[in-house]
TrEMBL record:
InterPro entries: SND2/TMEM208. It comes from the Eukaryota. This is DUF788-domain-containing protein. Keywords: Endoplasmic reticulum, Membrane, Transmembrane, Transmembrane helix. The keyword Endoplasmic reticulum applies. It is a multi-pass membrane protein. Residues 166-181 have a biased composition (Basic residues). It comes from Dimargaris verticillata. The chain crosses the membrane at residues 27-46, 52-73, 106-127. It is found in: Endoplasmic reticulum membrane.
Length: 181
């Protein structure tokens, strides 16, 4: 009976996850095609004669990156059904932290850059946020490791601050003592 109850709870959780992923994937698809359609129409149809090669290359590279991430998120969030049509898996949880969250962040920055670059080409510089954030995150782990490998050989830590009475006591103890002979 306990296994049956657990199985029902697991199926309900999968159904809930499948519904949540379905909404997320629908929104992701609309946003992906919407942003890229607007960019292509405005930049390449309306402004065809004034498009620089650098802009075309930048868009192609960033579009390819966002397309790979879009495909990855779509495959992660897809539900899986057995031959009878029953839900086997609701897919991966697309709202989880970590790499999935970073993939969404890259998509958001890419879309912001694409739409913003229609107004000013300086928006392309925002794309440097992605490697900058990577360096910031990795640096938090790498710097202490590198300090340990290449830093000072002593592991001496700075002495904690002493109170005035402790300083006086230490001074008295270190004071040379004279004895009478």
């Amino acid at each position: 009976m306990g296994a049956l109850c657990w199985d029902l709870q697991a199926k309900n959780a999968d159904k809930k996850l499948a519904a949540q992923n379905s909404k997320t994937l629908q929104w992701l698809t609309r946003a992906f095609f919407g942003v890229n359609s607007v960019y292509v129409f405005v930049q390449f149809v309306l402004g065809y004669g004034s498009v620089a090669w650098s802009t075309t290359i930048a868009y192609t590279v960033t579009f390819a990156i966002s397309l790979v991430i879009y495909w990855q998120l779509m495959s992660m969030g897809q539900t899986r059904h057995n031959s009878q049509g029953e839900l086997v898996s609701g897919g991966e949880d697309l709202s989880m932290e970590g790499l999935t969250s970073y993939m969404f962040d890259i998509l958001y920055i890419t879309w912001l850059v694409h739409l913003g670059s229609l107004v000013s080409s300086y928006f392309w510089y925002l794309y440097w946020l992605i490697p900058g954030f990577f360096v910031y995150k990795v640096g938090g782990y790498a710097v202490p490791l590198l300090r340990g490998l290449f830093g000072s050989s002593s592991n001496a830590q700075p002495a904690p601050a002493q109170s005035n009475s402790a300083k006086k006591r230490e001074k008295r103890q270190n004071k040379p003592k004279y004895s009478r002979h």
